[in-house]
Fold this protein.
Amino acid sequence: MNEQIQPATVRVFIALAPPDDAKEELARALRPAYEAYPRLRWNRIEDWHITLAFLGELPAETAPLLQQPLADLAAARRPLRLSLRGGGHFDERVLWSGIEGDLDGLHRLTADVRSVVKECGVVFEDRPLRPHLTLARSRRDDPSSVVNVASDLAGFSGREWEAERLHLVASNIGRGPGPIHYRDIEAWRFSGEQ
């Protein structure tokens, strides 16, 4: 039998992450929802992030090709000042917190990140940026929990913080029955003047 061996792949995205104290501030606001809606599939606080470019499943050897161009990009950029604000949902299934602050800068950074990825020859679905932090997903038989929590979160206003690093992240989604986990492949500090 002549079976072809598939190359190893990794599910990859590029993101920003709020600092721990900003995430903890939002988690405190969500505490009543954690208790009231235990059936929601809550994302782990350490995995909360703002996706700038979702690249999907890539051959394992592709991720290292992105590292130096992304490092150069981060070195040329200054940190963005952002905050977590309010809540909402996508299709009554995905709960999110909104992002405020330097949204023009966030959109410029996203465009530059995606240009770098394309210049590296990586093909991905270039969807419009909708800045948010995904917090939870509902189960198929639960049409109202996400909507209720989003309504309760509408008045949340978090403190301002700096997005200090650009993250190249790998995900284990779809690789087993357990919870989704993310890990940094690499992260680079923003240190420029732009």
The helical segments are 20-36, 63-76, 103-119, 145-153. The beta strands are 9-16, 41-42, 50-59, 80-90, 94-101, 132-137, 157-163, 165-171, 182-189.
